[in-house]
Design a protein that fits this description.
Layout (H helix, E strand, L loop, with lengths): L2 E5 L13 E3 L13 E4 L4 E4 L7 E10 L6 E8 L2 E8 L6 E5 L2 E5 L10 E8 L5 E7 L2 E8 L11 E4 L7 E9 L20 E8 L2 E3 L18 E3 L6 E6 L12 E7 L9 E8 L2 E4 L3 E2 L5 E7 L10 H6 L1 E7 L1
Antiparallel strand pairs: 1-14, 2-3, 3-14, 4-13, 5-10, 5-14, 6-7, 6-13, 7-8, 8-9, 10-11, 11-12, 15-18, 16-17, 18-24, 19-23, 20-21, 20-22, 20-24
Length: 328
């Protein structure tokens, strides 16, 4: 594998499993990137990682706190209900404390300033001996530990998040998780930013029915996604495509592309699944078929490399025409 999870909250919908809210601004706080961010106040906030559990991960969170803190976890990693480790922001010193299980393993020297975005990266390898726990802030090494990072019997991580969120005002953006076993995106994310590209015009194939019509892409370009206008089909094999907005001008490279759809199946009669399509240079690259949920939800495919070959570039990402095919 490689990059296994990313979210910048840009759909305006919480992509974590529980906790937190999606905000465009709050108390003068603005997102690090894009139009949305996660706001966390007095709640747990976590994500069960797809394809897990994982013995080793590289995680990134952009973090911001506003004015008042009373101390508490700002990021953690677990196996089921067992907390394997976490980072805590000390309310007095404003430095990050690093915990393995419930044991303080050390601190990061950097004082975390109020109302300032920081990119916190965590490299975790769970093991009795030879375990690794490293912290970087804004790309600079802050903490390193090699030894026993397995506080109990659990040998791997299956979820990340905030688990001891006391009465604080925390904000998060650009959350990325990499698995080191992939050929690319197998190490530190390095402060990556997440940009959402929305439908901006009709694609070359339009076999689904827009509701309401007559436009197709205009039924798909809302943030947050709307159920009141959509495209739908009851014919297996039908294809729908849209043209997408370009990446921000500041983009100099692309590490991964995620194909996002928000939809549901209306019955148990086929088609009840979909296959994402990437069209590049008049060639369609059909991705693995995925199930649709019974209630509107996110269906996504994360592409670490260009299906036409090689790594992604800004030009290749901007050239993508996004499509979907109805499947049994």
């Amino acid at each position: 594998m490689a990059m296994i999870f990313m979210t910048g909250a840009e759909w305006g919908i919480n992509e974590f499993d529980a906790g937190g809210s999606i905000v465009t601004s709050k108390n003068g706080v603005l997102p690090r990137t894009g139009a949305y961010m996660y706001g966390i106040t007095y709640c747990d906030w976590f994500k069960a990682l797809p394809g897990g559990p994982y013995q080793e991960l590289f995680c990134q969170v952009a973090f911001f706190y506003s004015d008042y803190i009373s101390g508490g976890s700002i990021f953690g990693w677990r196996c089921g209900g067992t907390q394997l480790g976490y980072l805590r922001l000390n309310s007095s010193t404003r430095v990050i404390e690093v915990y393995i299980g419930s044991t303080l393993a050390g601190t990061c020297p950097l004082v975390i300033l109020n109302r300032t975005w920081y990119v916190i990266e965590v490299h975790i390898k769970i093991a009795d001996a030879g375990g690794v726990l490293e912290i970087r802030i804004d790309g600079n090494p802050q903490f390193a530990f090699i030894g026993d990072t397995k506080p109990g019997s659990e040998t791997a991580i299956d979820r990340i998040g905030v688990y001891i969120a006391v009465n604080n005002d925390y904000y998060y953006d650009d959350v990325i998780v990499n698995d080191p076993s992939g050929e690319v995106n197998n190490s530190w994310p390095g402060g990556l930013k997440i940009a959402l590209r929305l439908p901006i015009s009709e694609g070359p194939i339009q076999q689904w029915t827009p509701t309401p019509g007559p436009g197709h892409y205009t039924a798909l370009d809302e943030r947050p996604p709307s159920g009141s206008d959509n495209v739908k089909t009851d014919v297996v094999g039908n294809i729908e495509m849209v043209q997408l907005s370009a990446l921000p001008a500041e983009a100099q490279s692309v590490r991964a592309v995620q194909l996002d759809f928000w939809g549901l199946k209306m019955s148990t009669v086929a088609p009840t699944r979909l296959a994402p399509i990437v069209r590049l240079g008049e060639v369609d690259y059909i991705q693995a078929t995925q199930d649709l949920p019974l209630a509107q939800g996110q269906v996504k495919t994360l592409l670490n490399t260009n299906p036409a070959g090689g790594n992604w570039s800004v030009a290749a990402a901007n050239a993508v025409i996004l499509g979907v095919q109805a499947k049994e």
